[in-house]
Design brief:
The chain has helices at 2-25, 36-49, 61-71, 79-89, 114-120, 126-135, 139-146, 154-167, 186-195, 204-217, 222-236, 241-247, 251-279. With 280 residues, the protein is mainly alpha-helical.
Length: 280
């Protein structure tokens, strides 16, 4: 039974990537290039989709940060100039310096700014570095390095690395510490807890290890299973625990109905676009 459900989640990952990951990454098509354009786009990608995904981050942070990175000429970027520009854009209000990846606090050497990380990588973009580090079986190093960025915890680091690996279709067979490609939130905990008849407070590392182990046992990709769980809970079950439980009783029927809903939505969107184009 668990194998069928995990396969259902893996199938949903393709919708997740189409409707979420692709929309983000397609804005930065050269993010993996080892040149100034690539390094700048990789920073914008990380700031736009990952760096401020922690709870409590103001919605203004990401777009202001991306505009700022795109607007400052020259490379490498000066982190003090970046921070001053960011402060100016947001009127220096509630920037939460100690959790902000752009804050250049040189007194705390355990956590550094994203700009310093980019400088330390030299000619590599952040995406290119992540790809190479994973391919060289140093996933633990990549995860640990990302966690040194101010405001980036284990979940955000895993989220970014998971999307890098899936987006670029990396061969992860034999890669150690594969649980580090499993961002765990309350929905993933809830689903896994339900599958193994435990509560939804399962430790994050145990939850990640369970997904990896049982996905591989069923010849599935753990990273796509993880993506599919999140998509199922938020996009299909609409963040309702009741619907999560109900829908998992008949996953094939649920997927069929969801695809039909998407087809109707697509047709409706096209019709509205055509109408708007006529009146503009």
């Amino acid at each position: 039974m668990n194998g069928e459900v995990l396969n259902f989640f893996q199938t949903l990952s393709f919708l997740f990537n189409f409707r979420h990951v692709d929309l983000l990454w397609n804005q930065y098509p050269q993010a993996a290039a080892d040149n100034e354009v690539g390094m700048r786009q990789a920073l914008c990608l990380y700031l736009s989709g990952y760096a401020f995904e922690r709870q409590g981050a103001a919605p203004d942070y990401a777009p202001a940060a991306v505009d700022m990175i795109q607007g400052i000429p020259g490379w490498p970027l000066d982190e003090n100039r970046v921070w001053a520009n960011f402060q100016q854009r947001l009127a220096d209000q509630g920037l939460n310096e100690h959790m902000n990846p752009l804050w250049p606090n040189h007194q705390n050497h355990d956590n550094i700014s994203l700009i310093q990380i980019a400088t330390n990588l030299g000619p590599q973009s952040l995406v290119s570095w992540a790809l190479g580090t994973i391919a060289n079986n140093q996933l633990g190093v990549a995860h640990q390095q990302l966690c040194t960025i101010r405001g980036t915890g284990s979940k955000i680091a895993s989220l970014f690395l998971r999307d890098v690996a899936v987006r670029h279709e990396l061969d992860l067979n034999g890669i150690a510490n594969r649980h580090l490609l499993q961002p765990i939130d309350t929905w993933v905990q809830y689903v896994v807890g339900g599958l193994i008849n435990q509560d939804d407070n399962m430790p994050h590392q145990d939850c990640a290890a369970w997904i990896v182990e049982h996905a591989l046992q069923n010849n599935l990709q753990p990273e796509r299973v993880n993506q599919g769980i999140w998509y199922f809970c938020t996009a299909i079950a609409r963040s309702s625990r009741y619907l999560v439980q109900q829908y998992l009783q008949n996953p094939e029927d649920v997927l069929r109905m969801h695809l039909e809903d998407l087809q109707r939505e697509s047709l409706s969107v096209r019709q509205r676009i055509e109408y708007l184009q006529e009146i503009l």
